[in-house]
Every structure is written in C-alpha cells, then in structure tokens.
C-alpha cells in the first residue's frame, strides 16, 4: 500500500509538471479583444526568449499550436511560445488600418499582441532582446505588420505565405473572401515605396530593424508568389541589404534560397510545387532567429 501511494504521488507530480497551452484571460491593453494562449515549457530558460506565433485565417490559436514543431523545440531549448488569436474577420488579422495596427502604438490587433509580449516578458522575466514573431498566411501578413509597426520589440520575424507590410492598407477586408484581392495577387511598388510604408509605420524611429525571413510556395494560387517577391523588395530596402545570390536545393530539394547581403539580415525561400501555406521548417527558422545552432 505504501509503495502504491508513493507511485501515485510521483505520477501526480509528473503530470503536474507537464507543460500545456494555457489561455491568459487578462494581459493588458487589448483594443480589439483578441485572445492569448501561452506555452511555458517545464524547463524554461533563465530570462527566456519569446516566440510569438500568429495563426492563419480560419484557424484558432490552439490549432496553430498543434500545426508546427515549435512546442517540441520550446521544450528542448527553454523558450516561451505566445499564441495570440483573433475571432474577427473570419479569424484573420487586421493588417489594413493605418489608424490602428499599421501605426506604432495606435491600437488594433497589433497593440493587443504587444500587450501579450509585455505580459510574458514581465511574468517570466523574459529577455526583451530576444522576442521573435512568425506566422502563416494571414499570420504571415501580420508578422510583416508587427515587424514594421513595432521594430523596437522584435529581433526577427519569419513569414510563411504572406504579403508585404501595409499591402492591405485601406482595403475593406484582408480575408480570402474579400472582393479586393489586389494585394494577395501581387500588388507592386518600388522598393523605396514599400520601404516608406514600413518607415511611416513608426515615424521618427531610427533604431535597428527586425531581421526577416520570407517563405513562399511557387504553386500558391491563394496568395501569389509575387507577393513574397514584393515583401523581399520591401525588407531589402528597409534593411539596406541587396540581393547577393540564390542557393538551389536549400533547405530541401524543392526550395531555392534567396540570400540578401550575407544572409544574416534577410533571406527568402521559394518552393517549387509548394502551395498554400508553405510549411514552416522550424529548425531553419530557429537557426535564423539564433535560438538554436
């Protein structure tokens, strides 16, 4: 009986230590009533890094948590995952309003996401110099928005099948059902014009800008590959890094890597035969972020 009791206690303790995705009900300024889910590994690092993961349209934060390998890498490397979630616009993010998410400090989903970051950094003594953002489809679009509107918060971002920052500015909706799909089909601007959209998102800001990774499938018929080419034009201008070379077969046979400068500031990946959404290659992303070797 005593052994059985000890085993039961040990099992209960083990289960109690099992990390899981948890909803946070109150985390600060939240102008659009978005949700927050957080994953804190059992063995969290001292002053942990924070990765914000933004879901696609029609997907919940919980579903995006299960859609990539990020949780297992958080377990083995001790960083924290934050999964914001929106229930508006068919679960699409609001990267279209200049008076809200597209401008630093002005509101929208973006300001709620920043509140979630600040809550996490404060609650878990996170490293404010190691905050990253990634997302797929609408989440990728919002990744570019976050990097543009809040360059002081994010060290780097990775966008999978998205569009350039402010591409949807002024439209009535950023959903796949919207009548205006000009942005998703490859709205074109000069690099300088795209760069100005980013710079105008935070007037007067002169600090460092987030490093960026742009990934897209060449067989994407929902968000055209041209949209990724425009995003690369944008960040090449903002980061002042010209294209330097292409590397075929990296990270796998169907992909071609586009390297800008020495590749530490900006990279693009285009996948032959890859549709929507280009699957996040988590090890490649985390190496670019600098979270794994």
UniProtKB/TrEMBL annotation:
GO terms for biological process: proteolysis; xylan catabolic process. It is an enzyme of class 3 (hydrolase). The keyword Signal applies. GO terms for cellular component: extracellular region. GO terms for molecular function: carboxylic ester hydrolase activity; serine-type peptidase activity. It holds the Pfam family Peptidase_S9. Keywords: Carbohydrate metabolism, Glycoprotein, Hydrolase, Polysaccharide degradation, Secreted, Serine esterase, Signal. The keyword Metal-binding does not apply. InterPro entries: AB_hydrolase_fold (IPR029058), Esterase_phb (IPR010126), Peptidase_S9_cat (IPR001375), Plant_Biomass_Hydrol_Est (IPR050955). It comes from the Eukaryota. Its EC number is 3.1.1.-. It is found in: Secreted. Residues 98-233 form the Peptidase S9 prolyl oligopeptidase catalytic domain. Residues 1-18 form the signal peptide. Belongs to the carbohydrate esterase 1 (CE1) family. Esterase involved in the hydrolysis of xylan, a major structural heterogeneous polysaccharide found in plant biomass representing the second most abundant polysaccharide in the biosphere, after cellulose. This is Carboxylic ester hydrolase. It comes from Anthostomella pinea. The lineage of its organism: Eukaryota, Fungi, Dikarya, Ascomycota, Pezizomycotina.
